[in-house]
Amino acid sequence: MKEKKPSIYDVANYFLYLSSPGTPRSITPLKLQKLTFYAQALNYAMEGEPLFDEDFEAWVHGPVSPELYYEYKNYGSREIDSSTIMKPKLDKKVKNVIKIIWRMYGTKDGKYLENKTHNEKPWQQARNGLDYYQHSNEIIDKTSIKNYYSKKFIVKQTKQ
Where is the Antitoxin SocA-like Panacea domain (predicted)? Predict the structure, then answer.
């Protein structure tokens, strides 16, 4: 029987479960956005399909899921309190994707990840020449994510 596809909240909660408040492995809303985006991208590279159904939009500060934004916006740029997060029940493959991204980016801060996404095609294409601080809620095309990151993550894996 095929496991139920997780929501972006399930994936975000697993990242929060893995986090360590007060350390480089803590998570701010900005960092959470980028971690979930990269989990989505890696799943496309590994499985050829999305990890979850929710979309990302090409906001000024990189890919943003509006759902996650509204869930955690009260934290502003402060780290999210993960002390009450229970270990989410997720499929082993889903956990594996999240753990790979966590190993790659768990100690990076949100600004580092924001700058990284700004240099990648899916966000750039969705912004389609907008000025840096110009508002956009353009959805980042899932085919663009799949095509770009399938090549990127495979190249990265072969270089290691």
Answer: 32-124
Contact 118, 131 (CB under 8 A): no
What are the angstrom distances between the C-alpha of 142 and each of 44, 129, 133, 139? 9, 19, 23, 9
Gap between the Cα atoms of 40 and 98, Å rounded: 9
The answer to whether the beta carbons of residues 140 and 117 sit under 8 Å apart is no
Per-residue pLDDT reduced to its tens digit, 49-74:
999 999 999 999 999 999 999 999 99
pLDDT in tens, 70-91: 999 999 999 999 988 888 899 9
φ, ψ for residue 63, nearest 5 deg: -60, 130
* Runs of H (alpha helix) within the chain: 8-18, 29-47, 66-72, 92-105, 110-118, 121-127, 142-159
Please tell me the predicted confidence (pLDDT) of residue 158.
44
The answer to whether 46 touches 153, Cβ cutoff 8 Å, is yes
Report which of 13, 20, 8, 26 is spatially closest to residue 66, judged by C-alpha positions: 8
What are the φ and ψ backbone dihedral angles of 135, each rounded to 5 degrees? -60, 140
Q: Model confidence at 152, in pLDDT bands (50, 70, 90)?
A: confident
- Reported as type and span, the H/E element at residue 65 is none
